[in-house]
Amino acid sequence: LIKKAGVSSLYRGTAITAARNIPGLAVWFGTYELLKREMNQSKLLGSTGSAEWMNIIVAGGFAGSASWSIMMPFDAIKSVVQTSPHKISAFEAFDHVTSKSKLALFRGIGPTVLIAFPANAMCFLGMEIAWKALSMFD
After folding, report:
1. How many angstroms separate the CA atoms of 134 and 138, rounded?
2. DSSP letter at 76?
3. N or C end of the chain, less CB within 10 A?
4. pTM for the predicted model, two decimal places
């Protein structure tokens, strides 16, 4: 890759990746914290310690699905920018992806959102377990 296109080719798509990740991560963390807080306050799944862990799992799953719903169009454009044989802009990639339909920006969203739920549920569960374990050292 470096021989063919130079060192800068390693950074192709960095701007569109940031454009994808900034709102996506804001939705990810925001959704997680909001849902976890609301479910804990409403005692939706109960009030025991195990309900708190279930709230983390449910909030994490929905947060992952929500964030990918936001990131999907940017990801479609990013993929074209990064895999194009020649350097193209995000605007050119957008035109390429949407040449037949604007819905092409959301191609594959069903499986992505379904996979995101358990993956992010476990991610947030792991984060909370680590947080609790590390807080023992306070």
Report:
1. 8
2. H
3. C
4. 0.85
pLDDT tens, position by position, 4-61: 777 877 888 899 999 999 999 999 999 999 999 999 888 766 667 778 899 999 999 9
> What percent of the chain is helix, strand and coil (3-state, nearest 5)?
80, 0, 20
Do 2 and 57 touch, CB atoms closer than 8 A?
A: no
Per-residue tokens: 8: 């800068």
Please check whether residue 20 is in contact with residue 75, taking contact to mean a CB–CB distance below 8 angstroms: yes
37: amino acid identity, one letter: R
Give the length of the chain: 138
* pLDDT one-digit tens code per residue, 82-136: 999 888 999 999 999 999 999 999 999 999 999 999 999 999 999 999 999 999 8
CB 59 within 8 A of CB 124: yes
CB 55 within 8 A of CB 45: yes
